[in-house]
């Protein structure tokens, strides 16, 4: 069979737009995910398609495609009658999901200590120092980016595909809440201390120690999120009276 490209039936030019469309799709999904994670779009917010299209400089088709991806990740809810809304978790869902995540993180740490390579460890250490630099500059967005990568690299170092898929699915639902857990500087500094201890345990290949640190680290984040939500709920009635 003759090659369609060499025969002149098609050309590379006809293929390139598909690549560009995929880049646009990934870019739109990435921007919206960051808006949700960093609280630009808060939980419960109804997503205005016209405003988002103007903000991102896109048409409604790629926006709606991005909505489908984010809905599959659990970051937004799509209703035939209400449209798309940023997903929100109840207190019970937060408790249950962080509890599950703490177990997944703990198992990741234990397996990583058995299977991590020197290259893996060097990359995690580099991310750790970059994260510390962001903390010194009060750059929460940059800090969270490196923080997320560190947890992700530990999970990858566990080299367990079933764990990896479950970890990714559960973690997507918690990204915005994990970001919010560092809003208070005392909690932020406590998280930094945990990461220092994580690195020590990882270098020592102490799986039980790293598992314990990671489990408590996630439970502390859960408590910080719940306390923050309770404080916001208490302040809301007072604000509405002013």
UniProtKB/TrEMBL annotation:
It comes from the Bacteria. GO terms for molecular function: DNA binding; DNA-binding transcription factor activity. Residues 22-89 form the HTH gntR-type domain. InterPro entries: GntR_C, TF_FadR/GntR_C, Tscrpt_reg_HTH_GntR, WH-like_DNA-bd_sf, WH_DNA-bd_sf. Gene3D superfamilies: GntR ligand-binding domain-like (1.20.120.530), Winged helix-like DNA-binding domain superfamily/Winged helix DNA-binding domain (1.10.10.10). Keywords: DNA-binding, Transcription, Transcription regulation. This is HTH-type transcriptional repressor RspR. It comes from Cupriavidus yeoncheonensis. The gene is rspR_3.
């Amino acid at each position: 069979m003759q090659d369609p490209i060499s025969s002149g039936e098609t050309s590379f030019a006809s293929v390139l737009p598909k690549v560009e469309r995929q880049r646009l799709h990934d870019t739109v999904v990435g921007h919206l995910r960051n808006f949700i994670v960093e609280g630009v779009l808060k939980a419960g917010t109804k997503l205005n398609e016209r405003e988002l299209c103007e903000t991102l400089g896109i048409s409604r088709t790629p926006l709606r495609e991005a909505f489908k991806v984010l809905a599959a990740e659990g970051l937004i809810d799509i209703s035939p009658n209400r449209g798309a809304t940023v997903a929100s978790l109840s207190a019970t869902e937060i408790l249950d999901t962080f509890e599950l995540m703490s177990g997944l993180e703990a198992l990741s740490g234990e397996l990583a200590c058995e299977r991590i390579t020197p290259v893996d460890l060097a990359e995690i250490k580099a991310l750790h120092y970059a994260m510390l630099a962001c903390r010194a500059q009060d750059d929460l967005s940059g800090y969270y980016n490196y923080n997320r990568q560190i947890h992700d690299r530990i999970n990858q170092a566990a080299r367990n595909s079933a764990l990896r898929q479950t970890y990714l699915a559960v973690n997507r639902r918690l990204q915005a809440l994990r970001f919010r857990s560092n809003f208070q500087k005392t909690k932020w500094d406590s998280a930094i201390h945990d990461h220092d201890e994580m690195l020590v345990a990882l270098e020592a290949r102490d799986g039980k120690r790293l598992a314990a640190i990671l489990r408590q680290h996630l439970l502390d984040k859960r408590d910080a999120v719940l306390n923050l939500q309770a404080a916001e709920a208490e302040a809301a009635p007072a604000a509405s009276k002013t």
